[in-house]
Amino acid sequence: MIMRTKTLLCSAGLILAAMQTAAADEKEAWRLFVADHTAPVLRVLDAGKGETLETYSLKAPARIYATETGRTVFAVQRDANTVTAFSSGIRFDDHGDHADIDVAAPKALDGSVDGDRPVHFVAHHGEVALFFDGEGVARVVSEKAVGDGKPDVRELRTSAPHHGVAIPFGAHALITVPNSVDPKELPEGVRILDAKGNPVGDVAACPGLHGEATSGDLTAIACDTGLLLVKGGRSAVPEITHLPYADDLPDDTKVSTLRGGKALQYFLGNFGPSAVVLIDPEDDQAFRLIELPTRRVDFVVDPVRPKFAYVFTEDGKLNRINVLAGEVDRSLALTEPYSMDGHWSLPRPRIAVAGDDIMVTDPLKSTIHVVDAKAFAAERSIAVEGMPYNIVAVGGSGEAHENH
Q1: What's the pTM value of the predicted model, to 2 decimals?
Q2: Model confidence over 7-43: pLDDT tens digits?
Q3: Which residues form the signal peptide (predicted)?
Q4: What is the spatial order of strands in the sheet that 154-157 belongs to?
Q5: In what order do the strands lie in the sheet with 24-36?
């Protein structure tokens, strides 16, 4: 009787395991959030099919940003003094050896974060900091609260309105210190604040502060003199060190935009109009300058293939950078030329990576070009109404469980 009971239990376990395996299918889903250059419109596209899933009306043309999880996309509408959020509809549940994926319809989330001239957006440690230049105030919200439609805002104030930024660090935050001579100039340092908004320690000097990014456990902030490197967890007070520019870099040039590497810890920054610089803070030669064939328009790192990054240049080419070799190893003619002469905000291409595809907006042609990342070859194009401009890609792959 005992033997038969064990056999039945074993058979039941095998049947259950088979049912669970059959119910779980590998699924990949990618969505593109695309903001128009001129119209107050945000479109959500199925990246694979090229179909428009939703079109949302905004109050002003927006810059768009995704959180670290990809669950939430924010539309920063500077000229309308508001920031609104959207659920991407793609959610992952980590199980260690694999992740489950749940795909639902995208949707606009309730609530907004309002203030005078929102500009800088930073997502870090599950929180989002929105800096309002017209007030010199950062408003911090948790991604979870925003997803619930109840953005509980805490404010971090500075001494004057300025073009600043704040970075959440768990129980602490970093916030810029306005230029003491003229707040209209770029900030001159950063200050650590505790959970109650009180200063911790001294101001870290960072003249001409502009640009930040995170890679691994490091956050970098760009200054006239080099980079501030910030390390810290959710509870510990952040530690700040200074990495000066190398002596062999061109004079009178600095980093003002940074991207953080994924899987490989490094930073990629602009350095003059027609060059980028690779930054490995752990290397004795921390800075490697990469000259480009012509002036730079936009650049991103590849989160899927860590050794690559991409730079679009004004000659209409997408250039692939081999991060390990420190050089441009491939170039692909993709669009008509987009000159960098003229106002900085003119419509020009922007890049996003969606799995094995590199997406490049072509606003003057109402098109998104799709490049096969593995072959580094043009694959197809997606027609989009208006002038597709800022773009973010969210998604990935996981196990999809029926009735999960």
Answers
A1: 0.91
A2: 433 444 544 444 454 456 888 999 999 999 999 999 9
A3: 1-23
A4: 118-124, 127-132, 137-142, 154-157
A5: 52-57, 41-46, 24-36, 388-401, 99-103, 90-94
